[in-house]
Amino acid sequence: MYTRYPLRLVFSAIFAWCAGLIGFGLILQHFGGYEPCPMCIMQRYAFVACAAIALIAVIHNAPGAGRRLYAFLIAASAIAGASVSVRQIMLQRNPPAETVCGPDLAYLLNSFPLGDAFPMIFQGTGDCSKADPFLGLTIAEWALLNFTLVALVALWQLARRTPERRRFG
Question: Which residues on adjacent β-strands are paired with residue 137?
């Protein structure tokens, strides 16, 4: 049996979830003493991308191919953010032998061409390998869990059959 979930409801939920995560991250940073490393900032950008695409999808409210395009873009952003989370978790579980605090993201992006800055970001720094647990998981593990949730909802939006798809097969 087909149950219709309005497009705006699903995309609104993705937007609200990602915006809430960004807000919570800012609260942890400014009031909880958790300073973000370059990889954490990249994960925030991925959540912002998911939220922005979901907001555009809510405003546009496009059925059919439009819905699938927005869902694909959200899933791609969430998967990109999840890959950064996985890399950070690997760094946290296997920290480098020498811990050196590297430059922050703004310095890297302003001082180096983009092609040189990205590899430096993903190498991680001493900050990126620091694992501060929050409610039993590190922030990177929480981010991976949330990216997975967002990607699954977006992939469900991408794959689900709607009335316009049922007519054509």
Answer: 134
CA dist list (Å): 78 to 43, 45, 132, 136, 145: 9, 10, 22, 23, 11
Contacts 24+ apart (CB under 8 A), 140-146: 140/39, 140/40, 140/43, 140/85, 140/88, 140/89, 140/92, 141/85, 141/89, 143/40, 143/43, 143/47, 143/81, 143/82, 143/85, 144/82, 144/85, 144/86, 144/89, 146/17, 146/21, 146/47
pLDDT tens digit string along 14-55? Answer: 999 999 999 988 888 888 777 778 888 889 999 999 999 999
72-104 pLDDT, tens per residue? 999 999 999 999 999 988 888 887 666 555 555
Q: Tell me the pTM.
A: 0.76
Q: Which long-range contacts (CB under 8 A, 24 or more apart) does 54-58 make?
A: 54/11, 54/12, 54/14, 54/15, 54/18, 55/11, 55/15, 57/7, 57/11, 58/8, 58/11, 58/12, 58/15
Domains and CATH numbers, the chain: 7-167 (1.20.1550.10)
